[in-house]
Design goal:
With about 270 residues, the protein is an all-alpha fold. Helices cover about 70% and strands about 0% of the residues. It has eight helices and no strands. Helix 2 packs across helix 3, helix 5 runs antiparallel to helix 8 and helix 6 runs antiparallel to helix 8. The longest helix has about 80 residues. About 25% of the residues are buried.
C-alpha cells in the first residue's frame, strides 16, 4: 500500500500535477469566500434598504403631522391677527401711542370675515370700531402641535437610523420650540388678560362688548378710564406675542417640511 502511494506521489511530482490541483483547490476556496462576501453584502444592502424605507415612511407621516400644525396655526393666526389689529385700532382712535416691538407685523392677518366683511377703514368708522370691540373677546384655546408622529418615530428606534444630522437637528429644534411655546402657559396668560379686560368693561362699566352701539361716546369712555387703556395695552402685547409665535412656528414648520422633501428625494 505504501509503495502504491509512493508511485502516485512520484507520478504527481514527475507530471507537476500536485500544483495544478492545489491551484484549482485554492481557486475554488477563493470563489466560495467571494460568493459568501457578496451574499453578505447583498443581505446588508437589503436590510439597510428596508430600514431606509421604514425611515422614509416615518418622515412622510411626520410631514403630514407638521402640515396639520400649519393648518392649526393659520386658523388661530387668522383670529388673533384680527384681534391685534382691532385692539390697535381702538387704542389709536383713543389717541394712544401703540408700543411696537421687533415683530413681523406685516404677517399678522387682518381678515375678520365674520365680524367685518367690508374694506378696513383707514380712519374713524363707528361700525368698524364696534366690530373691533367684539373682537376683544375672540380669544382662542390656542394652536395645537400634532406630536403623535414624532413620538412614534422615536419609539420605533428609527429616528436614530436617520442618517442626516442636519435634518435631525431641524426636527429637534422644531419640537423643542413647540414644547416651549405651545405648552399652554402662553394661551392661559392670553385668556386671563382677555377675561380681566372683559370683566372690567362689563362689570365695572356695564359695557357689553357685543353691543357697543349702546355706548353714546365710546372714545370718551376709553380716554377717561386709565385702567381700560392699561388693560388694552397689556392685551395688545399678549396678542402680538401670540401672533409672532404663530408666524415663527409656521416658518419653522415649513423649513422642516422642505428638509424632509429634500431627504425623500435622495
Amino acid at each position: 500500500m505504501i509503495n502504491f502511494f509512493r508511485k502516485i506521489r512520484k507520478k504527481l511530482a514527475d507530471d507537476n500535477q500536485f500544483f495544478k490541483y492545489a491551484r484549482y483547490a485554492i481557486g475554488e476556496v477563493v470563489l466560495v469566500v467571494v460568493g459568501i462576501l457578496i451574499a453578505l453584502q447583498i443581505n446588508n444592502w437589503n436590510e439597510n434598504r428596508q430600514i431606509q424605507n421604514q425611515v422614509n415612511l416615518q418622515l412622510k407621516n411626520l410631514k403630514t403631522a407638521i402640515q396639520s400644525d400649519i393648518e392649526s396655526h393659520d386658523r388661530v393666526l387668522g383670529m388673533e391677527g384680527f384681534r391685534f389689529h382691532a385692539i390697535k385700532y381702538i387704542l389709536e382712535m383713543a389717541g394712544e401711542t401703540v408700543r411696537l416691538y421687533d415683530y413681523q407685523y406685516d404677517e399678522f392677518p387682518n381678515q375678520p370675515r365674520v365680524l367685518w366683511n367690508k374694506p378696513i377703514p383707514e380712519g374713524w368708522d363707528r361700525a368698524y370700531f364696534e366690530a373691533c370691540f367684539s373682537a376683544i373677546d375672540l380669544s382662542t384655546v390656542g394652536s395645537f402641535i400634532n406630536d403623535k408622529a414624532i413620538i412614534e418615530f422615536g419609539n420605533s428606534g428609527l429616528f436614530s437610523a436617520l442618517n442626516n444630522p442636519e435634518l435631525k437637528s431641524i426636527i429637534n429644534e422644531y419640537y423643542l420650540n413647540a414644547e416651549m411655546w405651545f405648552s399652554g402657559a402662553l394661551w392661559d396668560n392670553n385668556l386671563e388678560i382677555t377675561m380681566k379686560t372683559k370683566d372690567l368693561l362689563e362689570n365695572q362699566h356695564q359695557i357689553d362688548l357685543r353691543r357697543m352701539s349702546d355706548v353714546e361716546d365710546p372714545i370718551r369712555l376709553i380716554r377717561e378710564n386709565k385702567l381700560i387703556i392699561i388693560r388694552l395695552h397689556t392685551l395688545l402685547d399678549k396678542v402680538s406675542l401670540t401672533c409672532e409665535t404663530l408666524v415663527n412656528s409656521r416658518k419653522r414648520a415649513e423649513q422642516v417640511i422642505l428638509s424632509i422633501d429634500q431627504e425623500l428625494e435622495q
